[in-house]
Design brief:
With 440 residues, this protein is of the alpha+beta class. It folds into 2 domains: 336 residues, BirA Bifunctional Protein, domain 2, CATH 3.30.930; 93 residues, Rossmann fold (3-Layer(aba) Sandwich). 33% of the residues lie in helices and 28% in strands. The protein contains 14 helices and 23 strands. Strands 3, 7, 8, 9, 10, 11, 12, 13 and 16 form a 9-stranded mixed β-sheet that branches. Helix 1 packs across helix 10, helix 2 crosses helix 6 and helix 6 packs across helix 7. The structure holds adenosine-5'-triphosphate and magnesium ion. Magnesium ion (MG) binds next to strand 13. The site of adenosine-5'-triphosphate has 14 residues, from strand 8, strand 13, strand 16 and helix 10.
Length: 440
């Protein structure tokens, strides 16, 4: 993308209505604009990041065997009366009437709808187990929408739902999603620690929240630094390997991590002091097993292997896709702006000419941009005739991981500068080796 043709509205001043750094930076760098309380328009830069995050979530769900579908945002109140949640949900639910005076709602989640779809189409144990997911906008009329997209009213969520014949099967589905989550967040370049959550409607050990450490997080968290060294990409850990997945779950159970809701001082005191990590955290995902709560209430039954009817066990698994944009910024920024992890960066490379009025610089930068683009590297070329310093600052605010800086003096010797956004390190390289670096 050439900046002169882009729609990248940046703010010169730091917005005063934003309380936390990610919200400030999302407004300054032009990722989102608020259109009503807790409701945001995604500008091109923000949308690019949102899509990258969404795609990583999708790929890891697919790898774990979950199947994508898409359910609507608007649901009927009658569906929610079947589970008894229409009245129970409270003022967070946005209730709507259509022209025929039928009661509708903007979905805050989809347990009822998926259970009804499954009930109407699945008859036999042979169709189990299945995990279905979709990535769809939700609406929750939060009392206090705040921190930008982190606690919005309209937000994008990946929600998956598992159906199994019995609790043992549901455990496997749970472990599978647990691993998919660990891999998803690792790929995004952030550390999200699985923490035992206050268990849901039916108790037990199958409820985890995934927490990204950041000083502005809403909950207090405690965890063993051993998590910092865990690598979930290892191929020996395979989906479908029941023993391997169980061992992974045990290891997580034995390595301390808890939010203030489940914190246990006695166990915490057994973690060696040098490994104790304590701070605040942001919930970016939440998974839980809830047994037959919805299948019972909504009459989902399938014929079992011996001919008797069986009530499937379910679990649900949410990722806050739009919240992640803010959470990643909270976890990865400095005084100059955002520092995108490569995997979610809107563009990997930013190209800047120090003298936009120098013909040779413009020529070299244009060529560099064309070559990178033709090699499949996503680049943003600031081709405007602005001060070099201002253009560099813009790249820093936007957080592009690598920057190519082209000035008349270096260019006279065939050299350009390659800057690493995270370390700030700069290197003078020939144009060819800079290209080679960026396409390696
Ligand atoms: P919270 O405790 O933060 O209110 P929750 O427990 O109500 O969240 P879940 O129902 O577990 O949320 O939803 C799954 C995920 O959706 C959460 O882990 C979070 O990342 C995201 N999420 C929930 N509410 C919001 C919101 N208001 N704005 C943005 N993301 C949200
Ligand atoms: Mg939750």
């Amino acid at each position: 993308m050439r900046l002169s043709q882009a729609f990248l509205p940046v703010l010169k001043e730091s917005p005063s209505d934003a309380q936390i750094v990610s919200h400030k930076l999302m407004l300054r760098a032009g990722l989102v604009r608020q259109t009503a309380a807790g409701i945001y328009a995604w500008l091109p830069l923000g949308l690019k990041v949102l899509r990258k995050i969404e795609q990583i979530v999708r790929e890891e769900q697919d790898r774990a065997g979950a199947i994508e579908m898409l359910m609507p945002t608007i649901q009927s109140a009658d569906l929610w009366r079947e589970s008894g949640r229409y009245d129970a949900y409270g003022p967070e639910m946005l209730r709507i009437r259509d022209r025929h005076d039928r009661e509708m709602l903007f979905g805050p989640t989809n347990e009822e709808m998926i259970t009804a779809i499954f009930r109407d189409d699945v008859r036999s144990y042979r169709d189990l187990p299945r995990t279905l997911y979709h990535i769809q906008w939700k609406f929750r009329d939060e009392v206090r929408p705040r921190f930008g997209v982190m606690r919005g009213r309209e937000f994008l969520m990946k929600d998956a739902y598992s159906f199994d014949l019995d609790e043992a099967g549901a455990r496997q589905s749970y472990y599978t999603q647990l691993l998919a989550y660990l891999r998803t967040f690792q790929r995004m370049g952030i550390r999200a620690v699985p923490m035992k959550a206050a268990s849901g409607p039916i108790g037990g050990d199958l409820s985890h929240e995934f927490i990204v450490l950041a000083p502005t997080g809403e909950s207090e968290v405690f965890y063993d630094a051993d998590y910092d060294a865990m690598d979930w990409s290892q191929t020996e850990l395979r989906y479908g390997d029941a023993a391997g997945l169980h061992a992974m779950f045990e290891r997580i159970g034995q390595t301390y991590a808890a939010t203030d809701e489940t914190h246990d001082e006695a166990r915490w005191s057994q973690v060696p002091g040098e490994r104790q990590r304590q701070g605040r955290g942001i919930e970016v995902g939440h998974i839980f097993y809830f047994g037959t709560k919805y299948s019972d209430a909504m009459g989902l039954r399938v014929s079992g292997p011996d001919g008797t009817m069986v009530t499937p066990h379910m679990g649900s698994y949410g990722v806050g896709v739009s919240r992640l944009v803010g959470a990643i910024i909270e976890a990865s920024h400095d005084d100059s702006g955002i520092i995108w992890p490569e995997a979610v960066a809107p563009w990997s490379v930013g190209i800047v000419t120090m003298r936009g009025d120098d013909a040779a610089s413009r020529q070299a930068a244009g060529d560099f941009y064309d070559k990178l683009t033709s090699l499949g590297v996503e680049a943003l070329y600031d081709d405007r005739d602005e001060r070099g310093g201002a253009k560099l600052a813009g790249m820093d605010v936007m957080g592009l991981p690598k920057q190519i800086i082209i000035g008349p003096r270096g260019l006279a010797q065939g050299l350009v500068e390659l800057k690493d956004r995270r370390t700030g390190e700069k290197q003078e390289l020939s144009i060819e080796s800079a290209l080679a670096r960026l396409t390696a």
